Every structure is written in C-alpha cells, then in structure tokens.
Amino acid sequence: ILYIKNMKVRNLFFTVAALSAICTQAATFECGGLYYTTTGANTVAVARVPAEKATNNPYKGVYIIPEQVYYDGANYQVTAIADSAFFQSKATEVQVPNTVTTIGECAFAYATDLANITLPLHLKDVSKMLLAGTNVVNVAVPEGTTTATTFSKSTVPLPPLPKPVDGLSLSASVALT
Questions:
Q1: Is 119 strand, coil or helix?
Q2: What's the whole-model pTM score?
C-alpha cells in the first residue's frame, strides 16, 4: 500500500511538472498579417513567419505594427521585435510602435525593399545588423538607444544627443552608407 501511495504522488508530481512546462512555453500566433510570440503573461514580440507556414519570409508591403494585439481572449502589448523577424522580407516600410523597447539581431536585415523605418521613442536595445542589406538611408535614432552596434554594412556610431528641452523627445538622424 505504501508503494502505491508513493507511486501516485510521484505520478502526480510528474503530471504537474509536465503541465507546468507546457503552460510556460511561448506561443506563436498570427494576428493582422503579422506573427507574434508570447514573451510574458501579457507581452509579445513580432516574430518571423514560422517555418511550417512558409519557405521564405512572406512579409511584404507596409506594416504599421500595433501597440497591442488581441488573441485567444487576451490583450498582449507588443514590446519587442524578435531576431530575424523581417529578415529577407519584402516589407517596404515598417512603423514600430512606442511600446517596443527591444529589436533583435538582424530584425530587418536583407529586407532589400525596405526603404523607410520608424523607430519607437522608448527604444532601448538594438542588436547587430539591424538594417544590413536594406535600402534605408536615414534613420532617426531615439534618445537613450545605446546598444546599437551595426545598423548597416558599415558600423554607424550613435551621435551624442542633448537632453530633452521642455519635455520634448529628441532623436538624431544617422545617414547610412
């Protein structure tokens, strides 16, 4: 009888552990023509199109990324753009909402049709090769963005920015070569 009780407790433990692992996995879903991956209880990142959905990145045209998306009965705030989300896409213009604070590595790299991008005011983290291989020639870098390392094929240092005056947000325009 003691063996059976221990076996039931052990099985219950493994069942709870398995369900916990399943519940904490990131979910990927499509909403409004973009794919998103959950990054927290109520946050998401714009994601690359899942491999099972396409052999290449079908994002094309103009994208105005929303600040919030609704999926499966819940609202999610868009706080990031994942690594390679628009990599080799046919997007021509992307407007990133002010809720995004992180843009992943190669997020827009080699999107050869990309000519315009609007970065959010509260952007903090930008990884390598953000705009490599694109047709973007000017980009406004929000104040406080300090981790941008390589915007294009050559390294573009961030210019020093003055402090905001009377609550205005400042940015710098960087010419890409």
A1: coil
A2: 0.71
